[in-house]
Amino acid sequence: MAGIESASKQRKRVVVICGGIAGSLAAKLLQFDADVTLIDLKEYFEITWASLRSMVEPSVAERTVINHKNYFKKGHVVTSPSVNITETDVMTADGDVIGY
Ligand SMILES: Cc1cc2nc3c(=O)[nH]c(=O)nc-3n(C[C@H](O)[C@H](O)[C@H](O)COP(=O)(O)OP(=O)(O)OC[C@H]3O[C@@H](n4cnc5c(N)ncnc54)[C@H](O)[C@@H]3O)c2cc1C
Q1: Is residue 12 scored above 60 in pLDDT?
Q2: 18 in ligand 1 pocket by Cβ < 6 Å?
Q3: Would you say 91 and 78 are in contact if contact means Cβ atoms under 8 Å apart?
Q4: Which residue ranges form the domains of the chain, and what is each CATH number?
């Protein structure tokens, strides 16, 4: 029991800044092994390379936008621009200070 408590206390805290393909994939993969916070301007991930097709085929457009919470169920999403980073924290424009 003590071993389990100690392991959970040592759970890493990770802050992923930007929820494009790179950040979203990182957050998705890390969410079960760490306490992950994803900071993005938007609540959703956008498949940018499908945007041209969306213009000529509007039915594709709705499938090119995926809410972060749909694939990132265990983590925390903060929707605000990150404005500063230190060795221990990330700050957002909304005033959140997220430690890692
Ligand atoms: C029309 C189009 C077609 C493309 N076609 C191809 C293709 O065929 N093949 C290919 O390999 N690549 C293609 N690309 C390029 C590809 O989309 C990018 O290389 C890729 O999306 C980059 O991924 P990324 O995660 O680095 O950044 P992005 O996808 O640019 O994501 C950046 C994220 O950062 C967030 N963000 C920005 N500033 C902040 C901030 N201060 N705080 C918090 N969040 C912030 C944004 O909201 C965004 O979600 C295409 C791009 C476009 C626009």
Answers
A1: yes
A2: yes
A3: no
A4: 11-99 (3.50.50.60)
